[in-house]
Each structure stands twice: as C-alpha cells, then as structure tokens.
Amino acid sequence: MNRQLFLPLALGGVMATVLMLPSAGTIAESAIQMKLPSTLGDWQFQIAQATEKEVDILAKDTTFSKAICLAPIPDSYAANGQPNAKRIDLSVVLSGIDINNSIHRPERCMPSQGHQIYSSRSGSVVTAMGRTFPVRELTSTQTISLDEKGEKTISLDCFTAYFFVGQKTITEDHLRRTLIDMKDRLTRGQDQRWAYVSASMWFSDKGEYGLPSRESAEKEIRQFLADLADQNIDWKQIEPGSVLP
User: What is the pLDDT of residues 102-114, one digit of tens each?
Assistant: First the structure.
C-alpha cells in the first residue's frame, strides 16, 4: 500500500474504533460557565434561541447559550435620535455526554446559516488578566433573507472567531480536540464535555450600512472574547500548558 495513503487510513481506523466504544460513564465537565452575563462592558445581551437546524444537527442533550450583543457607537445617532449600535452574535454550544454525537466545528453549520467561508486562519486572544488562548478566525460572506420567502436578500461580509473549552484544555483545533477525547476515553475511562464559543460581527471596508471596517470588527471580536473568557471560564480548572494552539 502507498505509504502516503497508509497513515490517514490507519488514523481513520483508530478514530472510528474509539468512537464506537461504549460511553465510559465518567463525565468531565467543561470549564465554561453556560449562563451568559446580561452585560459585558458596554455590551447589552439579548438572549436568542438556537435555530431548528442547529438543534436538529446535534445530539438532543446538547446545550445552547446564544445572544445578540449590542453596544452604542460613540457619537453616532439614527434619524430618530437614538444611538446607533454595533452588534456581535454570540453562540456557546456545550456537547452532550457522548462524544459519538458531540459538537463539531462551526464551519460545518455556518453554510446552512447563509455563510460562504473564504478564509480561515489561527489567531490568539490576550485577556485583561494576562491569559492567552488560541482562536480560529473565519471570514465569510453571509447571504441574509429580508423576507419570509427569501426573494429579497442582502450579502454582508462577516468575521467570526471561535475556540473549544474542555475540562482542562482550550484549543481552536477540532482534530486536536478529537484526539484528546480519544486519549481520555482510553486512558482515563472518561467522556469529556466540550463547549465551543463563537462570536461574529458583520463588516464593510466600504462603510456600507454603517458597519465597521474589517480591522475594527476583528479588534472588537477579540476584545469581546477576551472579556467573556475572563468572566465565564473557570481558569483554575485549566491546566498550565494545556492551552493548545
């Protein structure tokens, strides 16, 4: 057999075997706090519900915490005198107890939400408390329906950053997260609950619709996730050296 083909086939076989193992029974809870704050700095949280497509694609014991987060834009007002607001869409999804039906990368479900992803890269976030963790950064074009029939649409550029939080580990790499699951099941007899945290913001480098530039959107998202991580992650649970790029 071609050596180049052997390694991925062997790895795929090992992963399939592990994923077919029965549930270990011991549950390792994620270090994330699923209850979202009502405010975070200038941001006001409006709780949102998971879409039917999101619910259907994951196991029934998956937990969702979602919010539309709004903050006033300084010295910017609408025609009615109300302050214009910037917006971040936040989603925190906690897997069920069985890794066989666990969470997946946001790239898998974003197309069903109208996103066409055109770039992906690794990044990092530094919090006010001096903690650094990796994120996956995606840029996409999102097509949004303006009416129920979908006959009228608008296309907006969107910046998204996400990461996974386990019991002791933070990573932005889905494969690495899967390998940690396999190791925990085989060596610890343990199923780990993971959460992925993602935040998105529309942008326009042409200044359309009053949206921020891409550079501003990236800065806003990183600062938002930094503040949320300091507040909603139990950093005492995260092992030194286990924050993986």
Answer: 688 888 888 888 8
The structural domain count of the chain equals: 1
Q: Is the pLDDT of residue 128 over 90?
A: yes
Give me the domain span that covers residue 107: 23-244
pLDDT digits (tens, 9 = 90+) for 181-229: 888 888 888 888 999 999 999 999 998 888 999 999 999 999 999 999 9
4 occurs within a structural domain: no
pLDDT, tens digit, 9 for 90 and up, residues 54-110: 777 778 888 999 999 999 988 777 778 788 899 999 999 999 876 666 688 888 888
Task: For the chain, give the secondary structure using H, E and C.
Answer: CCHHHHHHHHHHHHHHHHHCCCCCCEEECCCECCCCCCEECCEEEEEECCCHHHHHHCCCCCEEEEEEEEEEEEEEECCCCCEEEEEEEEEEEECCCCHHHCCCCHHHHHHHHCEEEEEEEEEEEECCCCCEEEEEEEEEEEEEECCCCCCCEEEEEEEEEEEEECCCCEECCHHHHHHHHHHHHHHHCEEECCEEEEEEEEECCCCHHHCCCHHHHHHHHHHHHHHHHHHHECCCCCCCCCEEC
